[in-house]
Write a structure and sequence with these properties.
Distance between the termini: 68 Å
Strand content: under 5%
Largest sheet: none
Order of helices and strands: HHHHHHH
Oligomer: single chain
Mean pLDDT: 79
């Protein structure tokens, strides 16, 4: 008996992974930058904490709403394609058959073999075959708005917690340096985790997120110090 060859692919986690990594990075960086900007402008501990908490709540809701609307638009497009293919299969089955045969011939199959493959595929699941091979749609990559929205909101809130906790525990005079240093470390970890989960190069992801993170915090600190007012 032949052993089963099991493979683990990254594509099934692309949707939620992208939303989660984006949410966590955004939560950490935006909250850290906001707190650093306020701390650079005023030594009042209460104002710093209020700004951080407000940033967490507003950012989480904004991420959820934006992700839901964006992925819902993608889902609507997928549903429209599904409805169109369903109608075409019902009204023009021969044309749809020829179209799928042409796709397989273009991929390298002989016309006779392509005919046999399409006959068997359409006999089992004609709609699924056309969605997959003609439009590139599948269950693994289907748009899931609610899942993406919840993942983004939760990830943003989790990412925003480290700078908030540091702002709560550290003296106002040390908040800027403490949050900047710890946030860069956490950003590097998030970048590495995201790259590893997605099969990308780890060091490239780490350098990318830490560079832009450092730049964002430097700019907000400069604005806070320059104007000496809450930003």
């Amino acid at each position: 008996m032949r052993a089963l060859h099991l493979e683990r692919h990254k594509v099934g986690s692309v949707g939620w992974l992208r939303a989660a990594v984006l949410g966590a990075n955004d939560g950490l960086l935006s909250t850290a930058s906001l707190v650093i900007g306020v701390a650079s402008a005023t030594p009042e501990h209460g104002a710093i904490l209020i700004a951080g908490i407000a940033g967490l709540l507003a950012g989480s809701l904004s991420m959820a709403a934006g992700e839901y609307v964006s992925v819902s638009s993608q889902r609507d497009a997928e549903q429209a394609d599904l409805a169109r293919e369903t109608q075409e299969l019902a009204t023009q089955p021969e044309a749809e058959h020829r179209e799928l045969v042409g796709i397989y011939v273009a991929r390298g199959l002989t016309p006779d073999l392509a005919e046999q493959v399409v006959d068997q595929l359409m006999a089992k699941d004609a709609l699924g075959a056309h969605l997959r091979d003609e439009l590139g749609l599948s269950e693994a990559t289907a748009a899931r708005p609610l899942q993406a929205a919840l993942a983004s909101a939760l990830a943003f809130a989790v990412g925003a917690l480290p700078p908030l906790l540091i702002a709560l525990l550290v003296a106002p005079a040390a908040i800027v340096v403490s949050i900047a240093a710890s946030s860069l470390v956490v950003l590097a970890i998030l970048g590495a985790l995201g790259a590893r989960a997605g099969g990308a190069k780890i060091w490239a992801a780490v350098l990318r997120v830490t560079f832009w993170g450092a730049l964002a915090m430097l700019v907000t600190a400069g604005v806070g110090r320059l104007f000496g007012t809450t930003v």
